[in-house]
Amino acid sequence: MLCSSRASRADNCSRSSGDSSARSDSNPRMWSSTLRSSTTMRDGRIAESWLHSRDQYEVDAFWGE
Questions:
Q1: How many CA atoms lie within 13 A of 16 on its CB side?
Q2: Is residue 8, in this structure, part of any structural domain at all?
Q3: For residue 8, what pLDDT band results from cuts at 50, 70 and 90?
Q4: Does residue 29 belong to any structural domain of this protein?
Q5: Which of 12, 14, 48, 54 is 20 to 30 Å from 5 at the Cα level?
Q6: Which range of residues forms the domain containing residue 18?
Q7: Cα–Cα distances in Å, from 55 out to 25, 34, 65?
Q8: pLDDT in tens, 12-50
């Protein structure tokens, strides 16, 4: 069930989002990126969480090897 603005109070549901940065060193490679997160809380628990990278191809290239 989605957390819609109309149902959010009745379902004790809320959303938040924010920006963060991530970095990983794996000699000899290094990766750094800006991330956007989106989280839905329902009844005091995380119901849904998404993490989006600014450059997904760069993330795939680093972690895919």
A1: 8
A2: no
A3: very low
A4: yes
A5: 54
A6: 13-63
A7: 17, 8, 17
A8: 778 888 888 878 777 677 778 888 888 888 888 888 898
Q: What is the pLDDT of residue 34?
A: 84
Is 45:35 a contact under the CB 8 Å cutoff?
no
What is the model's pLDDT at position 4?
56
Q: How many domains is the chain partitioned into structurally?
A: 1
In a domain? residue 23: yes
Looking at residue 8, its amino acid is S
Structural domain contains residue 2: no
Q: CA separation (Å) from 42 to 4, 14, 25, 28, 49?
A: 12, 7, 35, 42, 12
